[in-house]
Design brief:
Blueprint lengths: L27 H9 L18 E2 L2 E2 H12 L3 H31 L13 H29 L7 H22 L4 H5 L2 E5 L9 H15 L1 H8 L10 H6 L1 E5 L4 H61 L7 H37 L6 H33 L4 H31 L4
Antiparallel strand pairs: 1-2, 3-4
Length: 435
């Protein structure tokens, strides 16, 4: 509290100024009543009983009495001005004293601070927030790189190594420069030194904490972190090894809410992108496996069709009954080749139907191509059935002139049907630009 006369600083509970001996504060109501009544505003000077008779903080009794006599000899105008000025001065003094008292209570000095250590729950959620931030930044980087067609590694192991390196550099730089990270700042945490003569740890201790400390703390499913719950300073093995503690510090609620909102949005985006990535990866694996199956089945169908064509081309020109007998033998083997051909077409049709129903195709255009390809194989099966009927007619035909003449007529009709089916196949194959 400041003296109203000499402006010397006194204790808050002081009654008399230790410099000049006068009363430190006045009753404002009494002072106003005295002013209105024309009385002097000078309060009576009463020395405290405990004050020494000869000297009080450098002021002797004779000096105090002489100053009192000088004050009483002031003219009435000066006394009136003093009476008018004193209420304002007292109010300002009280306001300053209250402000200093509140400041001393809300912002104590470093020597009076008692550290409050962050809980492991806050530390886990802070690390998770940092994890989300770095992962979100990595996703943005890959999106930008893909948009700008920058050369980026597609190897999953290399990508994880780059991501872990980025996380390590971020944690070290943030804690060494700012003694906190984004996640820790959200929860009001900062990394401090456990040494009483140092506020923050050195860079090499941060490096030790983020390398060997985290490595040893992760043993046995993170036993080094779980043990921190039982310690007074909640120090994990990484903190004990590096000589650090995680303490609470004041933060702005507005910034905390903003960062928390950002973390929540980033977390939702991360979950969405991760879910989509897993779905896309699973679909790509299914598509790759399906494409491989389709390739193998298509090659099998092509090989079976070649066997059928080779068998048909091996049939001799019938000029004698001996040639007719050889032709019948060829048709017997053709029936077996046609059975294999039809079974392989059934298999590839089943694959195409599964690809359409499970939506394994890469695009809608490819899905339409599969629908058309399913129709193509259906027409090929009808052709194979016609060829099977021809083979049966030839094998069952009697070696007589009349039977052979009827066989030739039936074969011409079936060949016409086969050509019609081939024409439809050609049109469909033109639609899908395939052969």
């Amino acid at each position: 509290m400041y003296c109203n006369y000499c402006r010397s600083l006194n204790p808050n509970d002081a009654t008399y100024c230790r410099a000049c001996g006068r009363t430190v504060s006045l009753d404002l109501n009494t002072l106003e009543n005295q002013t209105q009544a024309g009385e002097t505003a000078e309060p009576p000077v009463v020395a405290p009983s405990s004050a020494p008779s000869q000297q009080r903080d450098g002021q002797t009794t004779s000096n105090i009495e002489s100053r009192k006599v000088n004050d009483t000899q002031r003219n009435p105008t000066e006394q009136k001005q003093q009476a008018e000025y004193l209420p304002t001065l007292v109010a300002e003094t009280v306001h300053v004293a209250e402000s200093e008292f509140l400041s001393s209570q809300t912002s104590p000095g470093p020597s009076s601070l008692v550290p409050v250590y962050g809980t492991m729950g806050h530390r886990f959620t802070a690390y998770f927030a940092d994890f989300i931030v770095i992962y979100f930044i990595a996703v943005i980087f890959y999106v930008v790189a893909f948009a700008l067609k920058l050369p980026v590694t597609a190897n999953e192991g290399e990508s994880q190594l780059v991501w872990l390196g980025t996380l390590f550099v971020y944690m070290v730089v943030a804690q060494a420069a700012y003694h906190t990270t984004i996640g820790k700042y959200v929860h009001g945490l900062e990394v401090c030194s456990a040494k009483p003569n140092r506020k923050y740890p050195a860079l090499w201790r941060i490096l030790l904490r983020e390398t060997l400390g985290r490595f040893f703390s992760s043993f046995f499913w993170g036993l080094g972190y779980w043990m921190a719950f039982r310690k007074s300073k909640t120090q994990a093995w990484s903190d004990e090894l590096a000589g650090t503690v995680v303490t609470l510090r004041p933060t702005s609620r507005v910034l905390v809410r903003a960062f928390t909102a950002f973390i929540l949005v980033a977390f939702c985006l991360d979950v969405g992108l991760t879910t989509y990535g897993l779905y896309k990866e699973d679909k790509d694996k299914k598509y790759a496996a399906f494409s491989q199956e389709m390739g193998v089945a298509s090659d099998a169908v092509i090989a079976a069709r070649k066997d059928v064509d080779n068998r048909l081309n091996s049939a001799p020109t019938v000029n004698t009954w001996a040639d007719f007998a050889v032709w019948q033998e060829v048709m017997k083997f053709l029936k077996k080749d046609l059975d294999v051909y039809e079974s392989r077409m059934d298999h590839i049709q089943a694959l195409i139907q599964r690809g359409i129903s499970e939506d394994i195709t890469a695009s809608e255009a490819e899905r339409r191509q599969f629908v058309i390809l399913h129709q193509v194989y259906e027409l090929r099966k009808q052709q194979a059935e016609k060829l099977h009927q021809e083979a049966n007619l030839i094998v069952n035909c009697a070696p007589t002139q009349s039977s052979y003449a009827g066989l030739r007529t039936d074969l011409q009709l079936m060949d016409s049907d086969i050509k019609g089916l081939e024409s439809q196949v050609s049109q469909l194959m033109t639609e899908i630009n395939a052969k």
